[in-house]
Amino acid sequence: MARKDNSPAISFFSFQDIITSVTGIMFLVMLLLTLLLLMREAVNASPEQTEARRLQEDVRALQERLSQMTSNSEEMRQRLEELRKLDAKTLPQRKEALLRRLEELQREMTQALADEETTKKESERLRTVIADVREKDAPVVEELTELQKELSALEAQKAKMEDATEKSKRMMRFTWDGNISKRPLLVECSGDAILVGTNGVATPLKVFRKKPGAAPMQLESEFLAWAKQQPASEVYFVFLSKPSSFTYAESLARILGDNGYQRGREVLPNDDVRVFEMPGEGQGK
Fold it and tell me: What CATH number does the domain located at 183-267 have?
């Protein structure tokens, strides 16, 4: 009967570590040798390379000088060619032409200087004329300014008169029987205000306005509280109702009638027609 082998198995991990370490050492030695060789070559070749670079720079400078000298030589050659083409017989003619051109240029310069002097004198004369005109026209300009101010004032006054005329077109006038001993109180009713005054007076005696957020009957209640304090033997009420006040004007007139006040009623054609001016409207007119 075979027996089971319990001996330990062979491991290759130590061998692999040795191989890896040896390989790394070899790479390191190769790198060090390469570095040493490069440094030795740089040290040994440094003076020669420096000399070679200096020589190259000298050669480049010589080439540039040679190119410049060649260019100058070409220019000199062209000038010599031009001088060879000149004819000695034509030199006096060319000299004469140049002298004539020089004389023309001198005459033109003299004329230009004379024109410049004339222009300066004319400019001075024009400045003097302008100054004189301004001095003479100063009163006219001042008068024109005053006239413009008066015109503006007249236009403003005209606008005020037109505004007053427009307002007067919307104001209704009433007459009453002078034989009656009682004094009429005109009650102008609109949707948001009640104005009370006497005939022939532009400013109302009493103004009642509807307050925002107040009770629906606030305007009517305030008016009735004031109206009932007036003596019925001395006054009577005439209600002037705009279309926006039809909902309450009749009831106010009826209540005052029930309290012993004589009353009348008129209907205004629209809400733009007024009997009284609001307080402050006539200021500044």
Answer: 3.30.420.60
